Amino acid sequence: MGADNATAVFEFLLIGISNYPKWRSMFFTLVLITYFSTLLGNGLIIFLIHFDAQLHTPMYFFLSNLSFLDLCYGTASMPQALVHCFSTHPYLSYPRCLTQMSVSLTLATAECLLLAAMAYDHVVAIINPLRYSVIMSRPVCVWLAATSWGTSLVLTCMLVLSLRLRFCGANVINHFVCEILSLIKLACTDTSLNELIILVTGIFTLLLPFGFILLSYLRITAAVLRIRSAQGKLKAFSTCTSHLTVVTIFYATAIFMYMKPQSKSSPDQDKFISVFYGALTHMLNPVIYSLRNENVKGAMKKVMGK
Question: How far, in Å, CA of 92 to CA of 98, rounded?
């Protein structure tokens, strides 16, 4: 935000779970378990992919990037939610609030784009298996991953720098973390332009990648249906099941949050839905991939054997 944005507010009060004091202990326990599970699960996935040479393929290269994203996303928000859970004055300074919001937006956008890149990888693997290693070469995979990270950083910078907000005293954020929609609601200036920019950004980071993923799976489905053997069809579909499950969970909640009219937004409802896509999905991702992936389970057995 520019220096011309004079503001009378220099810190924000995150009420989080304060509206539900009886739930504090349960919420703290659930977030703590979720965070440690996120660290353990995603850290294990990254280690296994690095450890087992059989997992040095494009699919697992993208999976390791996804796990690293999940680690960072969880660390950007959950420790703060834990600290503020029992705090009598859960304040966050304006610069820290802006920083946390920017980091979370960057990571969320990168995950959207990375899931689209993973869909492209599945399309090539199933539709053009003979040229898969040529098309999905190491430089191409690195370029796709770097583009996901770089594009997310650029879009987030454009979104944050485009905000022109002025706060006139209201500093209570009804959320567990600094979240852009909750922050905008505190502004005492017209925010219609900000909401439009968020909507347009959401189209590029949510709807377009999600549309690409849907088209990718339509092509995959058409290709799989042409496979004659039932075993071949099952193997092809099983390759995509984990990714499709992750996409459904992540995109469904994120699109519901950011694509619906803000006039129909409920602060309490939104903040608990955000817990689902901002915390639980990052814990579930390694579980989904490891339970349905024989190669990951095989690498885990090797590690346990040693």
Answer: 10
Q: Compute the average pLDDT of residues 85-114.
A: 84
Higher pLDDT, 5 or 8: 8
pTM: 0.85
- For residue 165, name the pLDDT band (cuts at 50, 70, 90): confident
- Residue 12 β-bridge partners: 92
| DSSP letter for each residue of the chain | --TT---S--EEEE-TTTT-GGGHHHHHHHHHHHHHHHHHHHHHHHHHHHH-GGG-SHHHHHHHHHHHHHHHHHHHHHHHHHHHHS-SS-EEEHHHHHHHHHHHHHHHHHHHHHHHHHHHHHHHHHHSGGGHHHHT-HHHHHHHHHHHHHHHHHHHHHHHHH-----SS--EE-SSS--HHHHHTT-SS--HHHHHHHHHHHIIIIIHHHHHHHHHHHHHHHHHHT--SHHHHHHHHHHHHHHHHHHHHHHHHHHHHHHS-GGG--HHHHHHHHHIIIIIHHHHHHHHHHHT-HHHHHHHHHHHH-
For the chain, which domains are there?
11-305 (1.20.1070.10)
What is the number of residues in the chain? 306
| Tokens found for residue 154 | 């650029």
Contact 113, 93 (CB under 8 A): no
Please check whether residue 271 is in contact with residue 174, taking contact to mean a CB–CB distance below 8 angstroms: yes
14 DSSP β-pair partners: 173
